[in-house]
Amino acid sequence: MTESPTMGRRERNKQAKLERILAAAGSLLAERSIDEVTTQEVAEAADIATGTLFLYAKTKGELLLMVQNAHYRQALDRGMARAARLEEPLEAVMAILRPIIDCNRAQRDNGVAYLREITFGDSAEAHRAEALTIVQETEVAVAAVIGRTSSAGAAGVAAHLINGAMLLALAGAGDADNDAVAAEVRQGVELVLRCPPPLPA
To answer: The whole model's pTM is what?
Structure first.
């Protein structure tokens, strides 16, 4: 069935509003924590009504997830592109993880809040589901690198440990700088690669 011109225009308008919301919220959240940013500010910056904003994100937690998901997706894509050009597993894994570390730490309060929303947010909420998908895709990308030199099963277990260790490092990083967090994650990756975990029985 061919989409009507009216429906096409409606969808284009909806997409344009979404892009304005992402740009406005992204700009505000780059400088301030989600607790300090109001939905009214986001709506005004995006040139939409507050009620319209709630059609895209019902809570500030959802708004944070929506904005951060876009950034995390870009970070993962950059990391995977870099990893594809590297042969050494440790360097390739870190090529995937470092952009994600930098993304999470761009505004530290929001990085922690994002992890909190992923962990404790509404399980039925679409933006949280997308965030969990990105986490899973990160793990798959890491497993693909490790799988160059080990079995798929072992690579999957190792990637799961590495991804979990990175998220824990980010959650507990406090005021540490990005290089220090990356160094901690790198140590964990080295350990897992040097001493692969046993496969589950």
So the answer is: 0.89
Confidence class for position 149, pLDDT limits 50, 70, 90: very high
Q: Give the DSSP H or E segment for 199.
A: none
Q: Look at residues 62, 63, 58 and name the one whose alpha carbon lies nearest to residue 42.
A: 63
* CATH number among 2.40.160.40, 1.10.10.60, 3.30.10.20, 3.40.640.10, domain 1-56: 1.10.10.60
Among the residues of 57-195, which ranges form H helices?
A: 60-83, 89-104, 108-120, 126-146, 152-171, 178-194
Distance CA 86, CA 98 (A): 14
Which residues of the chain are in CATH 1.10.10.60 domains?
1-56
pLDDT per residue over 50-91, tens digit each? 999 999 999 999 999 999 999 999 999 999 999 999 999 999
